[in-house]
Amino acid sequence: MPDGATPRMAEVRSPGVTRPGKNWQAGWTAREENDAVLIVNVVLETPDTADFSLWPVADLPSYQFMALSGGMSPLEVGSALAMLADYNSRTSEDDRPVTDASEAIRRLLETDKVIAPGGLRVHDTRTNATVQPGCCCGLEDWREWLDVADGESPWLGHDPSPRFEHADEIVHLWPDGRDAQETPPGQPIEILLGDLPGVLHTVQEGLKGFLSLTSRWATRQAPTLAADLAARLDEDLAISAPLPGTSGEHIS
């Protein structure tokens, strides 16, 4: 840890803590002495459900981000599955109309690999800075954040184009750093490299919670495909495989 750096601890936000906006589930947090909190969520882009009728969905604004976790409502899970079904149908050669939930899930399972627009969203309550995934960033690549501790800088999408800047044992996460030759606009979020295992452990726990809810959701909407759907999402979104160097409680 750098000289003067404040130790951080992974903790769960209490119900009375104000969150920075709608669709912020309790994620990984790091609390500092000045009461600043770093909040990290795994997020998925929300779908346009204006004409969607295959199953019930939440009333969410389109093309924003929703946090994935075990605390989602059934309607929010429905929205997440609506996004996955629609987003992955764009590569399908089958252009026949989808008439029911089972057919939509079956086509999702027929894709070569399920991809999910999203990633990790980071919010610093002290500066009110938020860094969220750019366009074309895939939630399925969330484990690439493991490489940040080794000096790598995973691609986080474009428009905006978030990027990492390494500085000893701290990494600066810029909201939009498309030109690597110049100082990016905005204010970066500082993340201690020693915090990354705790961050990614909690990201994984959120995904596991979402996967469990999805399995229950599918037993109601497409019961014959529920087990296959859970297994496919687990594999393609790299959810359950062990993470190196993580534990349930992280203190640096």
Keywords summarizing the entry:
six-stranded antiparallel β-sheet; disordered N terminus; alpha+beta; disordered C terminus; about 250 residues
Textual characterization of the structure:
This protein has 252 residues and is an alpha+beta fold. The protein has one domain. Helix content is 25%, strand content 17%. It has 4 helices and 9 strands; from the N terminus they run E-E-E-E-H-H-E-E-E-E-E-H-H. The chain has helices at 74-89, 101-109, 196-221, 226-236; strands spanning 10-11, 28-31, 37-45, 65-67, 118-124, 129-131, 163-167, 170-174, 189-192. Strands 1, 2, 3, 4, 5 and 6 form a 6-stranded antiparallel sheet that branches. A 3-stranded antiparallel sheet has the order 7-8-9, with no helix packed on it. Strand 5 and strand 6 (129-131) form a beta hairpin. The longest helix has 26 residues, at 196-221. The protein is elongated. The relative contact order is 0.17.
Helix and strand topology:
Blueprint (H helix, E strand, L loop, with lengths): L9 E2 L16 E4 L5 E9 L19 E3 L6 H16 L11 H9 L8 E7 L4 E3 L31 E5 L2 E5 L14 E4 L3 H26 L4 H11 L16
Antiparallel strand pairs: 1-2, 2-3, 3-4, 3-5, 5-6, 7-8, 8-9
The computed structural class is alpha+beta
Instruction: Tally the beta strands.
Output: 9
- Give the helices and strands as they follow along the chain: EEEEHHEEEEEHH
Instruction: Tell me the number of structural domains.
Output: 1
Radius of gyration: 19 Å
Q: Look at the structure and give the mean pLDDT.
A: 84
Q: Total number of helical segments?
A: 4
How many angstroms separate the termini?
A: 8 Å
Low-confidence stretches: 1-20, 247-252
Largest sheet, in brief, is: 6 strands, antiparallel
- Which band does the percent of strand residues land in? 15-25%
Which bin fits the share of residues in helices? 10-25%
Shape: elongated
